[in-house]
Write a structure and sequence with these properties.
CATH class of the largest domain: Mainly Alpha
CATH superfamily of the largest domain: DNAb Helicase, Chain A
Strand order of the largest sheet: 12-14-13-15-16-17
CATH topology of the largest domain: DNAb Helicase, Chain A
Number of strands: 17
Radius of gyration: 30 Å
CATH architecture of the largest domain: Orthogonal Bundle
Structural class: alpha+beta
Low-confidence stretches: 1-6, 439-465, 606-613
Bound molecules: zinc ion
Number of domains: 4
Strand content: 5-15%
Number of helices: 24
Shape: globular
Largest sheet: 6 strands, mixed
Length: 613
């Protein structure tokens, strides 16, 4: 959603104009229930409605699949489009003219020109492949040697670039495009000695690279057998349309099946993708280059809950394994790894064993963390031997903590990982926690966020924690319902009263806005917060609280926080007193003073904890 930063006014104007209940109502049958509307979630299969629209706040939230957000988010999810496309669609529907900076209008026309040039080039390459004489060798390679059929080739719009140096550059089909557009699209390259240009792709089979909407944004070329070109594969350079670290080959054709199966399979090359589709495995895509990036995952996440990486048996290096664990830890998506039988590539599996053979390889995929462990134990063969096993565990944990240190790790994710790692290594969660705990970290236990769906074994919940959670919710939902109460309660609340990372992030935002602007802009908040914190904020928002109840909830919440502060102070005093009697006096308070403070503490009215209702 980064692009929205340029259009804050547009976003607000569109959101103000849209009636979310009406918008959602077009595709979901909604029924009024209390302060919200409920219906069957359009984003996951369910029989009882858990999809809520809160009209007063302009947000929706599904308690089944956790999806939620504002009207723009809804359109993004419904139509599977990006932020700008959703914004534009809603603006059109509600008759709003978006404010465009001159620069963005210019960028838009450049992009359109590049798209037009690519689309013409794509037709040109297709035509060359079909040409009776020029395309013959390429057709033989594709249809006879590789075994592709015509129907698949035309679905992927495969083409051919002949060995002539200026076939594309001089073709009449490219006439409408100025030279600098062709240069910018990466279709041609400039000659050093004069002003002329020559074709980027020569003597290659062409695989057009399309975005999720099917628009041609770049090309990949594979050398013809016998060519003396140094690189087997050649991609278009980076252009305003195309970035290698973001594009997923085959996504336009795989999208539907990925949505249906919630699973995206990633293979290594274009030809593997095309062959998989030919055999009916149509949720298969590939990334360009070797490494799966966060941007790839973000694109795939829109359609999939799980990514299966298919590696060649020998090529699956440690780097790839580490990388997939890193991505698993930082991205809210399952990542599994499948390996091919020794010496086979996906192409061969499909041709020899068909769709069933390929699918059985995919279904043998294991979670990325297990895969990493498997590789580790293979390295330390005979892991039954105690020393070897200890060595394997050591290295595994250090790699895991390397992956953990690499990015923004979600605590819930980490907790889940530890429950997965424990049985592999034979260590308990507590032992693992101790090994990962670093002194620099806060004094909270590593596995702490006791969110919905947290594995029980990883989260030793005590009653006080759930009371804490409830109090945090009371305070936030009351402030969402009636921000004006900040005047009365603000001085009783601090961000430090919040314990989990996600609630702390929400409280910091909410308190900051109330202090600065006197009210909470929910849409700004949902824009700023990400991941778990955003989910949590939506969760609290959706538990819509009536304004009339807000004051009571704030009173109860603030009281709970006060009691917690007292309890912490009391245990600090007791601790100090104990140490003072053994001779040390860490806080500088005398035993008499400590005793007096403790007695004062004890005299305070004991306000009931938790409960609240
Ligand atoms: Zn749902």
């Amino acid at each position: 959603m980064a692009a929205s930063g340029n259009f804050p006014d547009n976003r607000q104007r569109v959101l103000d104009a849209v009636n979310l209940v009406k918008l959602v109502g077009n595709t979901v049958a909604l029924k009024r229930r209390g302060n919200s509307y409920v219906g069957l979630c359009p984003f996951h299969n369910e029989k009882t409605p858990s999809f809520n629209v809160i009209e007063s706040k302009g947000i929706f939230k599904c308690f089944g699949c956790n999806k939620g957000g504002n009207a723009i988010d809804f359109v993004m999810l419904r139509d599977r489009v990006d932020f700008l496309a959703a914004l534009e669609l809603l603006a059109r529907e509600s008759g709003i003219d978006l404010i465009r900076s001159p620069r963005s209008a210019q960028t838009a026309t450049i992009k359109q020109q590049l798209l037009d040039a690519n689309s013409a080039a794509c037709r040109f390459f297709e035509r060359t492949l079909a040409d009776a004489t020029i395309g013959q060798a390429a057709r033989e390679y594709l249809y006879v040697k590789r075994g592709f059929d015509l129907e698949t080739a035309s679905r992927f719009r495969l083409g051919y670039a002949s060995e002539a140096w200026e076939a594309l550059a001089r073709s009449s089909m490219m006439k409408p495009f100025p030279k600098d557009v062709l240069l910018q699209a990466g279709l041609v390259k400039p000659r050093e000695q004069d002003q002329s240009v020559y074709d980027t792709f020569r003597e290659r089979v062409i695989f057009p690279i399309r975005d999720e909407g099917g628009r041609v944004i770049a090309f990949g070329g594979r050398v013809m057998p016998g060519s003396d070109a140094p690189a087997k594969y050649l991609n278009s350079p980076e252009t305003p349309l195309f970035s290698k670290s973001r594009c997923v080959f085959g996504i336009d054709l795989a999208r539907q099946r990925i949505i249906e199966t919630r699973t995206a399979v990633i293979v290594e090359g274009y030809t593997d993708v095309v062959m998989a589709h030919q055999f009916g495995c149509t949720n298969v895509v590939s990334v360009l280059g070797t490494a799966l990036t966060e941007q790839h995952v973000q694109l795939l996440r829109r359609f999939a809950d799980k990514i299966v990486l298919l590696f060649d048996a020998d090529a699956a290096g440690d780097t790839a394994a580490d990388r997939s664990v890193e991505l698993f830890l930082s991205q809210p998506i399952e990542i599994e790894v499948a390996t091919l039988p020794d010496g086979l590539d996906p192409d061969e599996v499909l041709l020899k064993q068909g769709k069933a053979g390929f699918e059985s390889v995919i279904s043998s995929a294991i979670p990325a963390v297990d895969f990493m462990w498997k590789r580790m134990t293979q390295q330390f063969k005979g892991a039954t031997d105690t020393t070897n096993k200890a060595q394997a565990i050591d290295q595994f944990l250090s790699r895991l903590s390397g992956a953990k240190a690499s990015g923004n790790i979600d605590e819930l994710r980490w907790g889940q990982t530890l429950t997965r790692v424990a049985p592999l290594t034979g260590l308990t969660i507590q032992q693992l926690n101790r090994r990962f705990a670093r002194p620099s970290q806060s004094n909270r236990p590593v596995v702490q966020s006791a969110g919905v769906g947290a594995p029980d074994s990883a989260v030793p919940k005590v009653d006080r924690q759930s009371g804490q959670e409830r109090a945090e919710r009371w305070v936030l939902s009351a402030l969402f319902a009636e921000g004006a109460l900040w005047g009365e309660f603000g001085h009783l609340l601090t961000v430090d009263d919040f314990q989990s990372a996600r609630s702390t992030a929400v409280a910091a935002f909410v308190f900051g806005q109330l202090r600065g602007e006197g009210e909470v802009n929910i849409h700004d908040m949902l824009e700023v917060l990400t991941g778990e914190s955003r989910d949590y904020a939506l969760d609290v928002l959706a538990g819509d609280v009536a304004q009339a109840d807000a004051k009571k909830l704030l009173t109860d919440g603030a009281t709970f926080f006060q009691n917690e502060r007292d309890r912490r102070e009391q245990s600090r005093l007791t601790q100090n007193l104990r140490q003072t009697t053994t001779g040390e006096s860490p806080s500088g308070e005398s035993p008499v003073e400590l005793l007096r403070k403790l007695q004062e503490q004890a005299r305070r009215p004991d306000v009931r904890r938790g409960g609240g209702g």
